[in-house]
Amino acid sequence: MEETKKQILEILQGNSRLQPAQIAAMLNIETAQVEKLIKELEDEKIIVKYHTIINWEKVTDDKVTAFIEVRVTPERGVGFDTVAERIYRFPEVKTVYLMSGGFDLAVLIEGKTMKEVALFVATKLATLDHVQSTATHFVLKTYKQQGVIFEDKEADRRLVVSP
Amino acid sequence: MNWNQKLSPRVKSIPPSGIRRFFDLVSEMSGVISLGVGEPDFVTPWHIREACIYSLEKGYTMYTSNYGLPQLREAIAQDIYKNYKVKYEPKNEVLVTVGVSEAMDLALRAVLDSGDEALIPEPCFVSYSPSTVLAGGVPVAIPTTLENEFRVTAAQIENAITPKTKVLILSYPNNPTGATITREELVEIAKVVEKHDLIVISDEIYDKLTYEGCHTCFSSLSGMRDRTILLNGFSKAYAMTGWRIGYAAGHHEIIAAMTKIHQYAMLCAPVMAQMAALEALTNGEEEMRRMVEHYDRRRRLVLKGFAEIGLDCFEPKGAFYAFPSIKKTGLTSAEFAERLLKEAKVAVVPGDVFGANGEGHIRCSYAASVENLSEAIERIGKFLKNIT
User: Fold this and answer.
1) How far apart are CA B220 and CA B200, in angstroms?
2) Span B333-361, mean pLDDT?
3) Are residues A35 and A71 in the same domain?
4) Is residue A23 domain-shared with residue A80, that is, in the same domain?
5) CATH topology identical between B7-44+286-381 and B60-283
6) CATH superfamily for domain B7-44+286-381
C-alpha cells in the first residue's frame, strides 16, 4: 500500500492534471482505490496543494522575485519555528526553508517592483525580533523551477512513423 | 542509360519498407496523434549527451579501432555478464556497430552463402527478410500465432528446417508485437538449434524493456554461447536511436569475420556515439529504469483503454508496442490504418508491414505522452463505433 501511494505521488508530481481513472490504469488498480488513496494523502497533508507552474516573465513585467538570506537568533525552547512562522505568514513571502550553512532561513519573496521588495525587507523582515541580518538577491531570470525547464527546446522531433 | 536494367536483381527484388508509405501519408496531415513511432519519446538523458559534448570538447573526433573503443567493449562485456552471466572476451568477441541494423547485416553477410536459408519468425522487424536477401540467403518465414501470443515454438522451428537451413533469427522482446518469450520456451528452441547445427542471430535490443518476468539472453542457455550472435544496443533502453550505436557479441571467429566486412564498409562506429554509449553503460542505469517505469505505466493505460473501447489485444510484456487485432471490423490492416488516419487522425502502422501474418493487426506504439495516448484511445473508440 505504501509503495502504491508513493507511485501515485510520483505520477501526480509529474502531472497533477491526470485523472484518477488514468492513474488507476497506469498502476493496474481500481479507480476507487486511487481516489481513496489520494484522499488519504490529502488528509495527511502529504499532498499539500495542486499547483500550476507559470512562466510569469511571459505574462507581465510587474513581477520581481528576490531570494533573501536571513540570519536569526533562535528562540529559546522553540528554535527557529516561531520566527519562521512570523516570516512565512506574510503574503509576499512565497517560500521559506531552514538551511544549514552560512545563514538560517532562505526566503523567497515576490513583489511588483524592486523598490516594493526592498521596502518589505527593510520594514517587515529586518525589523523582526530575532532577525540579526538579511542579504537580498534579486532574481534576474528563471531557467528552471521545481524540476521544470522553462524554455525547453527539446520538442518532439521524431519522425511521425518509424520501424 | 537504362538504370533499371543495370540494377542488381537482388536489390530490385526487395520491396521498399511498407513504413515509408504511411510516413508520407501522415507527414501531409496536421493534428495527427502518432502511435506509429518505433523509438522512445524521451530525449537521450542529459548526462549521456553531456558526455558526448565533453568528448568533442576534448577533441575525440578521430577513428577508433575497427572493433570499437576498448573501454566501451569492456563495459559491454561487463554489462552482459552482470545481467546474464555470459562471458565474452572484450578484445575479440565484441564488435561495436552502427546500430543493431548494421550488426544484423554483418551477421547475415558473414554466415549466409548462396541459397542458405534463414528462419525468420514473423511478424518481425522490417529489415530481417530484405537483409537476408541482400546477403544472398533465402528468408523462410515462420508465422507465429496470436493464440500463442506471437511466440515462436520449437515445433514450428523444427517443422521449417530443410537441408539448406543455416540461421535462426530470434527477436524477443518483439517489434511489432511486444511479445516476450520464457526461458523454458527458449530451452526447447535451443535443443532444436543444437540438433540441427544452426546459428542463432538473437536481436535483443528491447531486453531492458521487459515488464513482467525476466529477460533471458539466448546466449546464456547451455551450449548456446558459441552458436549465438548476440545483437544489442543503446537505442531503446537509453533513448539513443539517432546515435546509431549498437554491438554484436559472439565467438571470436564469427566476430572476426563480421569485423572484416565492418572494417571495409564502416571502418568504425562514430567515436562520439561510442563515448556516449560508454557513459550510458557506466552511469545510465537510473535514467534507464525511470524511462522503463514510464513505459510500463503507459502500457497498462493503453491495454485498459483498448479493452474499454472493444479493441482486442493480447498483453504485450516487452518493448513499447501493442498489437491489437482489427479483424472483427472486416477491414484489412492497411484499410483500417488509412481510414483511422483520415477519419480520426490517429497514426498506427498496419500489421502486414511486419510480415504476412501481421495482417489483421495494427501496431500501436505507446512511446507517447499520457495525454496523447488517452486522446488517441478516445479517438479510436469513436472510430470503431462509426465503422461497426
Assistant:
1) 13
2) 96
3) no
4) no
5) no
6) Aspartate Aminotransferase, domain 1 (3.90.1150.10)
Q: B302-317, pLDDT tens digit by residue?
A: 999 999 999 999 999 9
Chain B residues 56-95 with a CB less than 8 Å from chain A: none
B17 CB near a chain A CB, below 8 Å?
Answer: yes
Is the distance from CB of B367 to CB of B295 less than 8 angstroms? Answer: yes
Domain B60-283 belongs in CATH node 3.40.640.10: yes
pLDDT digits over A38-95, tens only? 999 999 999 999 988 888 888 888 899 999 999 998 878 778 998 999 999 999 999 9
ipTM above 0.85, yes or no: no
What percent of the residues of chain A are helix, what percent strand, and what percent coil, each to the nearest 5? 35, 25, 40
* Structural domain range at position A66: 56-145
At residue B234, φ and ψ (nearest 5 deg) are -120, -5
A3 touching B (Cβ < 8 Å): no
**B184: helix, coil or strand?**
helix
Please list every residue in chain A whose beta carbon sits closer than 8 Å to the beta carbon of residue B39.
158, 162
Provide, as residue numbers in chain A, all residues whose Cβ is less than 8 Å from the Cβ of B34: 160-161
Q: Are residues A67 and A36 in the same domain?
A: no
